[in-house]
Amino acid sequence: MKLSNVEVELNLCETLPAAQCDASQIQQVVLNLLLNAAEATHARAERRVRVETAVGDGIVILNVSDNGEGIPPEIQARIFDPFFTTKSDGKGVGWDWR
Question: Does pTM top 0.70 for this prediction?
Answer without folding.
Answer: yes
